[in-house]
């Protein structure tokens, strides 16, 4: 079966902010905005046929100009998102062309993503229906519900830290988000939405350097990883 695969890059919502005033994807990291690094990786990935960028409605022209400036020819659509990641992804799924069968979603605040990692998640999605970049945690994980009291312990090696990119068969992803909406369930990432369908979610081991920028310290680490100043 021949699959048409599009990337969906999320560059809006609270999870893409260092603070309430700062949109991480539009901060300069070296000579380029943070968002440009993710778009460059999708542009260079041979398994990606097109890209949808989801941004705040005030940033539509900014991303269009960025795509033209850096020659991101795979950017097919730039659509306005919502306040949350969940509403942004749901909105972007409606903008996909009809022939798209695999969707690879990525958070723009992870600029260290590589074309190879994108390809690995897409290949897994074609084979298993899903491919979620994740990193195994070697240390024991403590679950804390209130204060500093441990409610549950998870042995090291059995817990994984989910990242993006996350690739899925389009029909499976849409089914998951439809179920989340109907059940009024808030999901933190796309794999959580797909898990609602009771389908197995397949992990792809990713690099620990694929960090998400959540603080000024993360920003400095990302600059070091990308060798920019």
Write a compact overview of the structure shown.
With 229 residues, the chain is α/β, with parallel strands linked by helices.
Write structural notes for this entry:
The protein is α/β, with parallel strands linked by helices. Helices cover 33% and strands 28% of the residues. The chain has helices at residues 34-44, 60-70, 85-93, 115-128, 170-183, 190-195, 216-225; strands at residues 5-10, 17-19, 22-23, 28-29, 32-33, 50-55, 75-80, 102-107, 130-136, 141-146, 149-154, 160-169, 203-205. The strands form four sheets. The protein has a seven-stranded mixed β-sheet with strand order 7-6-1-8-12-9-13, with helices on both faces. A two-stranded antiparallel ribbon has the order 2-3. It has a two-stranded antiparallel sheet with strand order 4-5. Strand 10 (141-146) and strand 11 (149-154) form a beta hairpin. The protein is globular and about 50 Å long. The protein starts with a strand and ends with a helix. The model has no long low-confidence stretch (mean pLDDT 92).
Overall mean pLDDT score? 92
Task: Quote the beta fraction.
Answer: 25-35%
The helix/strand class is alpha/beta
Taken in chain order, the helices and strands follow as EEEEEHEHEHEHEEEEHHEH
- Major beta sheet summary: 7 strands, mixed
- Count the beta strands: 13
User: How far apart are the termini?
Assistant: 44 Å
The neighbouring-strand order within the major sheet is 7-6-1-8-12-9-13
Contiguous runs where pLDDT drops below 50 for at least 5 residues: none
Number of helices: 7
Q: What's the shape?
A: globular
Relative helix content: 25-40%
Radius of gyration: 17 Å
């Amino acid at each position: 079966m021949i699959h048409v695969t599009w990337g969906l890059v999320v560059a809006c919502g609270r999870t893409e902010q260092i603070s309430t005033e700062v949109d991480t994807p539009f901060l300069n990291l070296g000579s380029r905005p943070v968002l440009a690094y993710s778009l460059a990786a999708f542009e260079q990935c041979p398994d990606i046929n097109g890209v949808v960028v989801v941004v705040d409605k005030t940033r539509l022209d900014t991303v269009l100009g960025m795509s033209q400036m850096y020659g991101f020819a795979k950017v097919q659509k730039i659509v306005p998102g919502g306040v949350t990641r969940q509403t942004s992804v749901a909105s972007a799924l409606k903008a996909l062309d009809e022939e798209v069968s695999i969707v690879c979603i990525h958070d723009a605040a992870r600029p260290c993503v590589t074309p190879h990692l994108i390809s690995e998640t897409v290949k897994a999605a074609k084979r298993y229906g899903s491919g979620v970049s994740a990193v195994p945690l070697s240390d024991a994980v403590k679950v804390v519900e209130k204060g500093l009291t441990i409610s549950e312990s998870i042995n090291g090696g059995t817990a994984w830290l989910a990242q993006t990119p996350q690739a899925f068969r389009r029909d499976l992803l849409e089914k998951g988000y439809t179920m989340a909406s109907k059940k009024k369930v808030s999901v933190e990432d796309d794999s959580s939405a797909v898990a609602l369908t009771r389908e197995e979610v397949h992990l792809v081991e990713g690099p620990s350097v694929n960090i998400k920028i959540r603080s000024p310290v993360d920003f400095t680490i990302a600059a070091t990883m990308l060798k920019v100043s």
